[in-house]
Amino acid sequence: MTQITLINGDGIGPEISQAVVKIIDAAGLKIDWDIQSAGADVIEKEGTPLPERVLDSVRNNKVALKAPVTTPIGKGFRSVNVQLRKALNLYANIRPCKNIPNVKTKFDNVDIIVVRENTEDLYAGIEKQIDSDTAESIKLITRNASERICRFAFEYALKNNRKEVCVVTKANIMKLSDGLFLESFRNVSKEYPNIIKREILVDNLCMQLVQNPSQFDVLVLPNLYGDIVSDLCAGLIGGLGVAQGANIGDEYAVFEPVHGSAPDIKGLNKANPTALLLSAIEMLKYIGEDDFAYKIEKALYKTFASGLYTCDLGGNLSTTEFTNAIINNI
Ligand code: NAI
User: Fold this and answer.
1) Could you give the CA distance from residue 180 to residue 158 in angstroms, rounded to a whole number?
2) pLDDT tens track for 31-78
3) Of 275, 195, 250, 312, nearest in space to 17 by CA
4) Fewer CB under 10 Å: which end of the chain, C or N?
5) Element (H, E) at 129
6) Ligand 1 atom at shortest distance from the alpha carbon of 9
7) How close is the Cα of 251 to the center of ligand 1, in Å?
8) How far is CA 208 from CA 26, 49, 101, 201, 215, in A?
9) Between helices 319-329 and 13-26, what is the axis angle to 10°?
10) Measured in angstroms, how far is the CA atom of residue 312 from the centroid of ligand 1?
11) What atom of ligand 1 comes closest to residue 68's alpha carbon?
């Protein structure tokens, strides 16, 4: 039986993890889930929000499914998500944003792949308090990581028959850091003569995305812009409840939705499990279980086609009811 690490997270994490495990099980795929908790709840017992056992489990299994983990805002421990990506060198964060059949949105024909650099930029965590009224964060950009993510984006485009890769920066202002990212893109792009290259500033991109998103294909961005733009793109296809993602490195892959732990709806049986389910479907394709992946995807689409939705999509089903509806459609 395949063993896969399951980081079931906190907030709505355990509810949506349970739903997805149930759906995969109902599809007939037996997975030995190696359940690993992380985050605030384990600090008291283990002294850290990201114990070594979690990393070891992913190192052993090579693949993980991860639900969101809360990060205290403005204080407290460093994000478990950022630490995990760094520790396992999961340098590419892929966030596909494509219209889902029967999920109503403002635009049709959205099909964007957000490729976000996952290890550096302002998320490197190099911050210092200069005095009580001044704080400083360092935006770290290296040629190595920038070329690596740009190459990943071009390779993704090649393998998936995509026509264009567009680099997103603010290199007019941050001439050295974003300038280096842009220069890396230009260097790597020479290896891909058959793919169209485009360059855009992040502020213009945001405006264009909300007016005419179908003009974009593959976007490659430094970490912070990638994080913000992928939530914007999630909004184009129905919101965070349906936005999937994956963190990929050369050795390991961790599949997780774009959204966070949604503390506002924690424990209310209201969370939409679709984003985690779509992430799990991609994970199944990644491990070669394509038949099960398509079987589950079909059941999910059939559920939407029957007009069944959770509250975030304008429906009235609870997490449990929506999960059972998908299971009935398998
Ligand atoms: P959030 O993504 O948790 O929630 C934003 C809004 O979207 C909320 O109104 C929430 O109810 C709604 N939402 C999110 N997922 C949903 C779902 N599956 N179904 C229905 N509604 C959903 O973002 P927020 O509130 O900014 O962050 C909460 C916590 O999550 C923070 O501690 C943050 O650090 C953490 N976070 C963790 C991530 C991860 O583990 N990868 C990613 C993003 C945030």
Assistant:
1) 24
2) 999 999 999 889 888 999 999 999 999 999 999 999 999 998 988 888
3) 275
4) N
5) strand 127-131
6) 40
7) 28
8) 42, 39, 23, 11, 9
9) 10
10) 12
11) 40
Specify the residue with its C-alpha closest to ligand 1, atom 44: 260
Q: Which residue has the tokens 């409840």?
A: 241
Q: How far apart are CA 113 and CA 92, in angstroms?
A: 12
The average confidence (pLDDT) of the chain is 97
Q: Which two tokens stand for residue 81?
A: 């998500």
Which sign, positive or negative, has the C-alpha torsion 206, 67, 90, 217? negative
Write out the two tokens for 106. 């403002």
CB-based pocket (< 6 A), ligand 1: 12, 68-71, 81, 240-241, 256, 259-265, 271-272, 275, 312
- Closest Cα to atom 16 of ligand 1: 241
Per-residue model confidence as pLDDT tens digits over 86-105: 999 999 999 999 999 999 99
Quickly tell me which residue has 């984003």 as its tokens.
275
Write the DSSP symbol of residue 121: B
* Shortest-distance Cα residue to atom 22 of ligand 1: 241
Q: How many Å lie between the centroid of ligand 1 and the Cα of residue 175?
A: 33
Pairing of strands 253-255, 246-248: antiparallel
Say if residues 278 and 242 touch (Cβ distance below 8 Å). Answer: yes
Q: Residue 190 half-sphere exposure, CB side, CA atoms within 13 Å?
A: 6
Q: Rounded to two decimals, what is the model's pTM?
A: 0.96
Which parts of 122-241 fold into alpha helices (H)? 143-159, 177-189, 202-211, 223-236
Residue 265 Cα to ligand 1 midpoint, Å, equals 10
Q: Would you state the torsion angle of the CA atoms of residues 304, 305, 308, 313, taken in this order, to the nearest 10 degrees?
A: 50
53-to-176, 253, 272 alpha-carbon distances in Å: 39, 17, 29
Which pairing describes strands 63-66 and 2-7: parallel, antiparallel, or unpaired?
parallel
Measuring CA to CA, how many Å separate 104 from each of 135, 224, 230, 250? 43, 28, 19, 36
CA distances from 227 to 2, 41, 87, 90, 194 (A): 31, 25, 19, 15, 28
